[in-house]
Here is the input.
Amino acid sequence: MSNIDLFKNAFAVNFPIEVAQLVLNRIADLHGAEFTKKYSGYGDSELTQLACTVLSGLNHADIARGIVRMNSEEWCPSLPKFRSWCEQGGDWWTADMAWAKAMQFESDPQTKITTLTKRVLDEVRHVLTAEGQKSAHFAFKDIYMDYLNRAKAKGMTQEMWVKPKSLKQIDNNERNRACIPCPTELLATVGKSFKRVGGAV
Here is the structure.
């Protein structure tokens, strides 16, 4: 496979054209002249292909969520804005929501955070320290979306992060453990073996 073919694969889209047309028709029905003005630079097939590209990876529940949100919005959304509505309020945090929670967690470690958010935050912490929030935010969003898409493809569900027990807590548990005395016969056998090994050295 050539380099060009590899790049073409990165642009592959598998969103149903019929669904993209339904979404565009609903936006047009709700926003009329504003929709026409916003998308006047596109031909019908070009706009449908763009919608397929932007909405790729969303499922029927995501689209339904976006439609419900759009019904209460005053302004005609861009396609990326419509996608963000589809993702908000779902089972998974959006990248922007995860970033906001990550920044809250940085200032207050008692903030609830998802396992995925914590993992990505840990991965971009060096960028946050070296280059600041703006650069870290870009890196965070890209990495988060990559992991999120993989998790969704595997059918995983979002989980909240739980702080691991510290070594001190583990030591206290070990210290409080009840001991069972070693049976006398076994203790005598272990003692003989130990003396033999010790004597050989």
